[in-house]
Each structure stands twice: as structure tokens, then as C-alpha cells.
């Protein structure tokens, strides 16, 4: 019996009952931790950019791509929080003098920084 093109390229078949099915496996992708930003970007890609999502998934690059997006988003978030807090005068002395005011201001700053990260990296 003549070999199929799949077999000529090094592929193998496995017998399942009366059928011969190709043994297909994806190469192992290096596991990298993906944080909340990467998970939200994954959900966005899966819902709104399916072609890009499946291209990254089948090329075994999705996890590393999401880990990179997560790292960039984390760095941008902390840098923005620091810059906004300095610009608005939210300091450690305010934290010592009036903790509730400091917490309120920092929550507001963190929410604004998160919105910037969402608009610039996650949902773009």
C-alpha cells in the first residue's frame, strides 16, 4: 500500500476500531503565569478577535503572549498609580494624618489607572 502524504512527512496513524486516525499533538508550550490582566485580555480576544485568539492558540504562543500583556499591564498600572499620586499630592504624610482620606484618594487613583490600562492594553 502506498504511503499517504501525511506518512511521507513523518506522521503516524493510530488504529481506532475500523478507522485509522492521525496522531496529532501540539508542541508543548512553556507555562508562564498569567495574571488577571492577561486573563481579561484572553476573554476579550476569545469574544471579539477569535481569529487572532485561535492563531495564537494553534501556534502555541497564546500563553507567552498573555503573560507578556499581563506584565506590560502590571507595569503600566503601577507606574500610573505612582505618577497620579505624586501629581495630586497623595503622600505618606497624608496616610499618617488621615487614613480614610488617603484610602479614598488611592482607591480613586487606582480605578482611574485601571481604566487607562483597560483602554490602552486590555480591550484594544
Describe this structure as you would to a colleague.
It is a single chain. The protein is mainly alpha-helical. It has one domain (31-122). The chain has six helices and two strands, in the order H-E-E-H-H-H-H-H. The protein has helices at residues 5-8, 36-48, 50-58, 62-88, 92-97, 99-122; strands spanning 13-16, 19-22. It has a two-stranded antiparallel ribbon. Helix 2 (36-48) packs across helix 3, helix 2 (36-48) crosses helix 4 (62-88) and helix 4 crosses helix 6. The longest helix is centred in the middle third of the chain and has 27 residues, at 62-88. It is rod-shaped, with a radius of gyration of 24 Å. It starts with a helix and ends with a helix.
What's the layout of helices and strands?
Blueprint: H1 5-8, E1 13-16, E2 19-22, H2 36-48, H3 50-58, H4 62-88, H5 92-97, H6 99-122
Antiparallel strand pairs: 1-2
Short précis:
It contains 6 helices and 2 strands. With 124 residues, the protein is mainly α. The longest helix is centred in the middle third of the chain and has 27 residues.
**Percentage of residues in helical conformation:** 55-70%
Low-confidence stretches: none
Cα shape: rod-shaped
Strand arrangement across the biggest beta sheet: 1-2
Mean pLDDT: 92
Radius of gyration using CA atoms only:
24 Å
Q: Count of DSSP helices?
A: 6
Query: What is the number of E strands?
Result: 2
The helix/strand order is: HEEHHHHH
What is the number of domains? Answer: 1
Structural class: mainly alpha
Instruction: Report the end-to-end length measured between terminal Cα atoms.
Output: 53 Å
- Proportion of strand residues: 5-15%
Major beta-sheet overview: 2 strands, antiparallel
Amino acid at each position: 500500500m502506498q504511503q499517504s502524504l501525511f506518512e511521507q512527512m513523518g506522521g503516524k496513524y493510530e488504529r481506532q476500531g475500523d478507522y485509522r486516525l492521525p496522531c496529532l499533538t501540539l508542541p508543548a508550550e512553556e507555562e508562564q503565569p498569567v495574571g488577571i490582566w492577561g486573563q481579561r485580555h484572553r476573554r476579550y480576544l476569545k469574544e471579539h478577535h477569535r481569529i487572532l485568539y485561535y492563531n495564537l492558540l494553534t501556534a502555541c504562543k497564546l500563553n507567552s503572549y498573555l503573560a507578556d500583556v499581563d506584565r506590560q499591564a502590571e507595569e503600566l498600572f503601577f507606574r500610573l498609580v505612582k505618577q497620579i499620586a505624586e501629581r495630586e499630592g497623595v503622600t505618606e504624610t497624608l496616610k499618617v494624618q488621615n487614613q480614610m482620606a488617603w484610602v479614598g484618594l488611592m482607591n480613586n487613583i487606582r480605578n482611574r489607572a485601571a481604566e487607562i490600562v483597560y483602554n490602552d492594553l486590555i480591550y484594544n
